[in-house]
Amino acid sequence: MTQTVPSSRATVHGYPRQGAQRQLKKAIESYWAGRSDADALLRTARELRLQNLAELRDAGIDEVPSNYFSFYDHVLDTAVLFGAVPERHLAAVPDATTPAGQLDRYFAMARGTAEAPPLEMTKWFDTNYHYLVPELGPDTTFTLDASKPLAEFAEAFAEGVTTRPVLVGPVTFLLLAKDPTGTEGFRPLDLLDQLVPLYAELLGKLHEAGAEWVQIDEPALVTDQPADVLAKVAETYARLAAAPARPKILVATYFDRLGDALPVLAKAPVEGLALDFTGDAAANLDALASVGGLGDKRLVAGVVNGRNIWAADLTAALSTLGTLLGLAGSVDVAASCSLLHVPYDVTLESDLDTEIAGWLSFARQKLEEIVTLRRGLTEGHAAISNVLHVNQSRLASRAASPIVKVPAVRERVAAVTAADLRRTSAYGTRAKAQHERLNLPQLPTTTIGSFPQTQELRKARAEVRSGKIDQAAYQEAMRAEIRSVIAEQEKIGLDVLVHGEPERNDMVQYFGEQLTGFLATQHGWVQSYGTRYVRPPLIVGDVSRPAPMTVEWSTYAQSQTERPVKGMLTGPVTMLAWSFVRDDQPEGDTARQVALALRDEVVDLEAAGISVIQVDEPALRETLPLRTADRAAYLEWAVASFQLATAGVRDDTQVHTHMCYAEFGDVLQAIVDMDADVISLEAARSNMAIVDGLAQAGYPNEAGPGVWDIHSPRVPSVEEIVGHLSVATAAFPAERLWVNPDCGLKTRGYPEVRATLTNLVEATGQLRSRA
């Protein structure tokens, strides 16, 4: 007889913030543009929160979270919650007593102003979500402003729902922060004693408001942490547990296994833990058994993958839940992490094949899976036997589909040899051949690839899809934009040009739509940062390239100028990282398939006369496993896939790559091993810190540390760019430096692009004149 658990609950850590039609994005951007006021933005936000509340409640979620909503980023919200606002942003918006003032100061921290650069931005663990890095120095003084979590709790309470507020934990918040002063011997974690009492005060306020549970997220604990940090974790939760008149505490971790932090949390005097049991984090199951379980603590079991879009194996998940029953006082069913990381609803995808749709689970479908599993746990397997049967049929359908495994693709991958991963000559020989062919000045200037995506371009793409214009009209619209972009760059005086990518909706989706094995969605939007949403393609089967993807556009652009124009491709690791990757084979196998498809494109670009080819890998660092022990195997296949994609060209063809918005220190050797002739990197927000890292790592090739943070609407002055370049040339040989922005320019407007690139060229000229 199946064991039943009457007390089990269904819950989630968080839910997509934007709305089914990205209403939040549109409302925020309308506010930024001055087309609406603060009241309108706040009204839209409230409507979305209440809509989510109703959806979660109506889906059967027993315990609904609150305070997961954000106008930009939940780590930024935490900085504001505890008054960690840099002086420059206080000065930029001195009056924050009104809703508009509060929003403007908040957005100044996120985006910057003309005079105040924004907070640094980087990846949230190994996801494609970006968070704003708190700035905390030895003089930081925290002050609690509990208005947001209290207001969102009260908002739901008024609707008859007692929510579980979600907070970024104190240890994770401090570990994610940076000290802008660089004070020797100081680390933000040293501020823990000052911060913990404010968390205790906040718990008291939430308890007074009626909160029964509070979720405190500590995902930093799934990364390798030394003994002194784990000791601080134990001390922190002992202090919070001792707070008078508080809600029950649920400490949540996700994205990987807990390792040495598990026994610390298991012994902590808190009432519950939320653990991930998907992917590599499935190791938490055996680890939990090895520490003797959680006693009478509540366990929120993340058995539904909150980061990928494949339908859960419900039978396997029920088996895991059954095993967990003996390891905790109660077992509740949840997704592994916030559903922020997946699209909204599969049923919105009207063009998707019904069989394939059955393989998928977006946020709404994951709610159904969680509630079904809770029902199976509380009522027994027989109560959900029909659902289990359908689920197993769909899993079998996917495994047997001819689009999933393609013999020709697998045979080609099997034939790859070590020689296919190496350029013909070493960098020194290649550099000489490239310099003779390209004849570039010292400190050559370029951009990363994309130019602003105007409304006219988006309209043309929409109209060709809908049939309002024919392919010939669309092609001419794209050519006209390319001609304009080339002329702009020549007028500004850039040395190596780009075609601007007017035909591309997204740097991954564009290629996914042309490769076999990939599928695109219509409404599968996922937040990347702020109001930037992407539609990750789905990798459903073996990958190949049926036809050239970029050659026509690149050669047309090259025909419009005598200066070199870069061919622009997205690398294999990024194609995986920014897609929803298949989970039925090792990721390295999928990466090799994508690499071979890109290799064909690289070779065709060279044959068409393109002398500079950029294969972007911005996701190389973000996909780095969270546990050090797992990294060598990942880097081996990641570097090899880049080499496989790029090694088939002649010595005099210059291969570039690009990376942005990540901490690169852990992958510097991998960057060297990739052996790109030129790498461009994000550097402006971190004050060119990566240049020292490259120098210390002995990076032997050429590098372009970014001098313009394109995620901010600021136009940096000539003097500011000269300052960045002076820092770079002091640490790295000028003869191997390039000058470029941090990232592509698609999110910026033409006026700021013209102004900044003009400043960039002028600043470079000043540095050249000093040589």
* Beta strands, count: 18
Helix content: 40-55%
CATH first level of the largest domain: Alpha Beta
CATH architecture field of the largest domain:
Alpha-Beta Barrel
What count of structural domains?
2
- Oligomer designation: single chain
Shape: globular
Uncertain residue ranges: none
Largest sheet: 7 strands, parallel
The share of residues in extended strands comes to: 5-15%
Question: Rg, please?
Answer: 26 Å
- Helix segment count? 28
- Physical arrangement of strands within the biggest beta sheet: 1-4-5-6-7-8-9
How does this structure look, described?
The relative contact order is 0.09. The longest helix has 22 residues, at 38-59. The model has no long low-confidence stretch (mean pLDDT 95). The chain folds into two domains: 23-400, TIM Barrel (Alpha-Beta Barrel), CATH 3.20.20.210; 407-770, TIM Barrel, CATH 3.20.20. Strand 11 (526-529) and strand 12 form a beta hairpin. By secondary structure, it is α/β, with parallel strands linked by helices. The protein is 43% helix and 11% strand. The strands form five sheets. It has a seven-stranded parallel sheet. The chain has 28 helices and 18 strands.
Give a quick rundown of the structure.
The protein has 771 residues and is α/β, with parallel strands linked by helices.
Keywords:
single chain, 771 residues, alpha/beta, TIM Barrel, 2 domains, 5-stranded parallel β-sheet, 18 strands, 43% helix
Give the topology, please.
Blueprint: H1 23-32, H2 38-59, E1 65-66, H3 74-81, H4 87-92, H5 99-111, E2 121-123, E3 130-132, H6 147-157, E4 164-168, H7 170-176, H8 192-209, E5 213-217, H9 227-241, E6 248-252, H10 261-267, E7 272-276, H11 283-290, E8 298-304, H12 314-324, E9 330-335, H13 354-357, H14 363-379, H15 385-400, H16 407-414, H17 427-438, H18 455-466, H19 471-492, H20 509-512, E10 516-519, E11 526-529, E12 532-534, E13 538-544, H21 551-558, E14 566-570, H22 572-577, H23 587-607, E15 612-616, H24 631-646, E16 654-659, H25 668-674, E17 678-681, H26 689-696, E18 702-705, H27 718-731, H28 750-770
Parallel strand pairs: 1-4, 4-5, 5-6, 6-7, 7-8, 8-9, 14-15, 15-16, 16-17, 17-18
Antiparallel strand pairs: 2-3, 10-13, 11-12
Helix pairs in contact: 1-2, 8-9, 9-10, 12-14, 16-23, 18-19, 23-24, 24-25, 27-28
